[in-house]
Amino acid sequence: MTRAGPAGAPTALAVAGPGRYSLDHATHDALNKPWMPAVALLAAGAGAAWTIRQRRAAVAADAQEAAAAPADAPRAPVAS
After folding, report:
1. Over 90: is that where the pLDDT of 53 sits?
2. Which of 47, 43, 22, 42 has the alpha carbon at shortest distance from 32?
């Protein structure tokens, strides 16, 4: 199994379309509109961008904290 990341599931749903165990099936295709795949892909992109931004901020904060610590102090592992 590969790691598709935050955009994997919405992208797969946008490409595959509604299935038996889907929101479209449960709502009798009330939400199955031609523009919904685009909305799903945009939401996936926004979610991925947010996740990347949060991750970069956390890594930068860890690096800044490590740089501020005295050289002889034990360091906590930096998240990668």
Report:
1. yes
2. 22
Tens of pLDDT, residue by residue over 40-49, are: 889 989 999 9
Q: What is the mean pLDDT of residues 48-53?
A: 95
Tell me the three-class secondary structure of 37-64, residue by residue.
HHHHHHHHHHHHHHHHHHHHHHHHHHHH
Overall residue count recorded for the chain in this entry: 80
- The number of helix segments (H) and strand segments (E) in the chain equals 3, 0
- Phi, psi for 69 (deg, rounded to 5): -75, 145
Residues 6+ apart with CB under 8 A from 24: 18, 30, 31, 32
Question: CA angle 1-42-40, nearest 5°?
Answer: 65
